[in-house]
Amino acid sequence: MPRIKILVLILAGGAGGRLELLTHTRAKPAVPFAGTHRLIDFPLSNCLNSNIDDVWISQQFNPVSLTDHLANGRPWDLDRTSGGLLVLHPRQGNEGGEGFQEGTGEALWSQAELIREFNPSALVVLSADAVYKLDYRMLAEEHCEAGKAVTMVTTEVEPDDADRYGVVQVDGDRVTEYVYKPDGAKGNLVSNEVFVFTPEPVLDALDELVRERGQDDLEDIGHYLLPRLVDAGEARSHRFGDYWRDVGKIDAFHACHMELVGDEPPIDLDDPAWPILTRAIANRASAQVGSSATVQSSLIAPGAKVDGDVSGSVLGRGVVVEKGATVRDSVLMPGAVVRAGATVTRAIIDDHVDVRADVGEAGGEIALVGLHATVDESLPAGARFPQVEDD
């Protein structure tokens, strides 16, 4: 078939509240991951590996933290004179779609005029809080051949976790029912927040919803838009059976890292056939592991210095683990320091945190220490430090 025109829209404007302290001063897609990357790297690298050149990112909360990392799209070959990366911000002055958005439905509708002007054959709409590899071009071509308004990428999750998502019932590849975040899910097949839309019928449906409900009540696309398309017989499923992990919650974020340091990591971020690229950080030398160090089953990023005991952990760029310190089953983000005598166990330590006392404990809930904090007194399992009031 002829090469189709594809537009990717990454909805990166959510507040990311489920990641708690990690998103208090940064956008969720800008959260560091695996020692060297950020969450936005997964959809952007998938675009590069899928040979898709037109990528828009809709920003809203804490945009500076993400804009700096994007580097005009250069790491993903999106810094182009024509096309490439376009960063969209909340705006004022037009008749509709202005100001801050209250959900992904409004975020999509607010860009309707620009999408219609661009006139893609397929609109791929993504979130940026999952770890996976997927060929979006293949998916878009399959969607166009099927002739439906939406293709939902679906995957199976743990039954106890299904009510966090849009739960899908299918007959073959036809979606027969879609229920968004139900109380008591009827199964564990869910939409994984990757959608391919045929723009015109979907944008028309959003216009109808705005007339019926108003712009401020569009909420997420799973509330009203997707059920309407399913009821009209215009929704299909693409079953995805490879590795996919939603890391939008603290326990899931930690668990995914623990999978990466296991004996058989389920995803290779450095696969030459499908690399996950990121913005290079200059002036970082190789990691240093001292003669007194013990390191087992861990990821150590450039610039890290380890003289203590590290096992089953991920250490970001510039992390320091002093002699006499212990880090187990934890994630330490760039610049964190664990001082001699301190033990960090089952914890997530944010950027440039100075740990001088024990944090967490084996078998306990995940402890979380926020940006630039100093830990002078021991923190128990499940601790959140510092305590931050909601805005």
TrEMBL record:
Residues 9-260 form the Nucleotidyl transferase domain. Residues 288-358 form the Glucose-1-phosphate adenylyltransferase/Bifunctional protein GlmU-like C-terminal hexapeptide domain. The keyword Transferase applies. Keywords: Glycogen biosynthesis, Nucleotidyltransferase, Transferase. The keyword Nucleotidyltransferase applies. InterPro entries: ADP-Glc_PPase (IPR011831), GlmU/GlgC-like_hexapep (IPR056818), NTP_transferase_dom (IPR005835), Nucleotide-diphossugar_trans (IPR029044), Trimer_LpxA-like_sf (IPR011004). Pfam families: Hexapep_GlmU, NTP_transferase. Belongs to the bacterial/plant glucose-1-phosphate adenylyltransferase family. PANTHER family: GLUCOSE-1-PHOSPHATE ADENYLYLTRANSFERASE, GLUCOSE-1-PHOSPHATE ADENYLYLTRANSFERASE-RELATED. This is Sugar phosphate nucleotidyltransferase. It comes from Solirubrobacter deserti.
